[in-house]
Each structure stands twice: as structure tokens, then as C-alpha cells.
Design a protein that fits this description.
The protein contains 3 helices and 5 strands, in the order H-H-E-E-E-E-E-H. The protein has 110 residues and is of the alpha+beta class. It has 2 domains: 43 residues, no CATH class; 57 residues, HU Protein, Chain A (Irregular). The strands form 2 sheets. A 3-stranded antiparallel beta sheet has the order 1-2-5. A two-stranded antiparallel sheet has the order 3-4.
Length: 110
């Protein structure tokens, strides 16, 4: 499954190339957008990016976990988690990419 990891620097570079802003302005713009997304998620708001997907905050209740080594039960406290739900357009684009990829070659083991 391994692929390239897109970093903040990669995003800033893409903004620099496409918009012609300075590298500093591009990096600042990427930081501002990411900060706005983070602030909204921390507040518990849903962040919806059209044609991309949504970041949703969900509350998980108290549950009991088990240490796999000892079998000892441990309470896991309630917490909030962020879930990403891709848009239908994004799902379609991902699946189109699979359709264009060559089929894996099966080999027999000796």
C-alpha cells in the first residue's frame, strides 16, 4: 500500500508553483488553512471540504479494554476522536485509479 506522504512543505510548494506567491506566503497560507481546520475540529465542529470529504468529531464512551499480555481488564476513559469520511466524488476518483492500474501478476510458488 505504501505511497508518498504529502507534507506541509509539499503543499506549500504546490501553492507556490500554482499561484505564484512567494514561498513564505505559500507556507503561511497552508499553515493558516490547516490551523483553521484544527481549530474547528477542537471546537467539535464538522469540517466539510467539498469534493474531498468531512472531518467529524465523535465521542466514545467508557469501555473496558484488556491487556493482551496479562489478560488484565483496564477501563478506557471516554474520549473524542476525529474521523475522516471521504466524499462520494473522492471515493469515485480513488476507485477510478484502481480501474486504471494494471492487474497484479499472480505467480506460483515452487
Amino acid at each position: 500500500m505504501g505511497g508518498k506522504t504529502i507534507t506541509r512543505a509539499d503543499l506549500a510548494e504546490a501553492v507556490y508553483r500554482r499561484l505564484g506567491l512567494s514561498r513564505t506566503e505559500s507556507a503561511d497560507m497552508v499553515e493558516m488553512v490547516l490551523q483553521e481546520i484544527c481549530d474547528a475540529i477542537v471546537e467539535g465542529d464538522t469540517v466539510k471540504l467539498s469534493s474531498f470529504g468531512s472531518f467529524v468529531v465523535r465521542d466514545k464512551g467508557l469501555r473496558v479494554g484488556r491487556n493482551p499480555k496479562t489478560g488484565h481488564e483496564v477501563p478506557i476513559p471516554p474520549r473524542r476522536v476525529t474521523v475522516f469520511k471521504p466524499s462520494n466524488i473522492m471515493k469515485q476518483r480513488i476507485n477510478e485509479g484502481l480501474a486504471d492500474a494494471p492487474a497484479p501478476v499472480e505467480t506460483e510458488a515452487d
